[in-house]
Amino acid sequence: MSDSIAGFISDVDEDGALAEVRKALDAGADPLGLVEALRAGMSTVGNRFEAREYFLPDLILSAEIFNQSVALIEPHLKGTGGPSKGSVVIGTVQGDVHDIGKNIVATMLRCAGYEVRDLGIDVAPGSFVDTAKETGASLVALSGLLTVAFDSMKDTVAAFVEAGTRDSVKIIIGGGPVNETVLEYCGADAYGKDPSEAVALAERFLA
Ligand code: B12
Which residues does 178 contact at the CB level (< 8 Å), separation at least 6? Predict the structure, then answer.
C-alpha cells in the first residue's frame, strides 16, 4: 500500500493518492509509514523535475497533494500521542520558499511527540527569536534548500546571539545541500539529512 501511495504522488495523481491514503487509514495502516511513503513520492517528484521530466505545475500540484494527504493522516498521528516531549520552532529561512521537506520534518516531529510551531516560509531571523521566546522552545529547526539560505541561517543564529538567547536554544539545520561545512559556516549546533535525523537530534537535545 505504501508503494502505491508513493507511486500516486510521484505520478502527481491527486484522486489516486487521496483515495489510497483513505483506504490505508481505514485498513489501520501505520500513519508514520504513510508519511514516509509520501516523502518517498515527493523525492521522486523532485528528481523528475531535475531530470526535466516534470515542470513547475507538477511540483506545485504534488506539494498540494502532499499537504492534503498529511491533513488526512494527522488526526491519526495525534491520537497516538502522550504528553509533549518539548517545544520546537521550525521554519524555512528568509529568502527561501521551499517547504515540502520542512513540512515533512514538522510532521515527523509532531508524530514523535513534540509540540511544533511552524512559522512557514521566508521567515525573518527575528521571528525565530521572538517565537522561541514566546513558546519557551529550546529547539529551533531551520530549513533551507537554496545556497543563499546559508546566509539566512547564519543571520538567524546571529540574531539569537544579539538577543542574548543563544545559550537557551539548540539550533539545528537541514535541507538539500546542508552539510558539515554549512553547519560550521552558520554556527548552528547540528545538521540532519532527513526527518529521522531531525527526530534523533530532538531526542538528543530535548532529553
Ligand atoms: C520543489 C522545488 C521547488 C518548488 C518548491 C515548492 C514547495 N512548496 O516547496 C518551487 C517550484 C516553488 C521552487 C522554486 C524555486 N527553486 Co526549487 N526546487 C524544488 C526541487 C525540485 C525539489 C525540492 C523538494 O521539495 N524535495 C523533496 C523534499 C522531500 O526534500 P528536501 O526539501 O531536501 O527535504 C528533506 C531533507 O532535506 C530534510 N530536511 C529539510 N529541511 C530540514 C530541516 C531540518 C532541521 C532537518 C534536520 C532536515 C531537513 O528532510 C526532508 C524530508 O526528507 C529542488 C530540486 C531537488 N531535487 O531537491 C529544486 C531546487 C531546490 N530549487 C532550486 C531553485 C534555484 C529554485 C528557484 C530559485 C527557481 C527560480 N529560478 O525561481 C525558486 C526559489 C524561490 C525561492 N525564493 O525560494 C535549486 C536550488 C539551487 C541552489 N543550490 O540554490 C534546486 C536544487 C533545483 C536545481 N537543481 O537547480 N522549487
Answer: 144, 191, 193
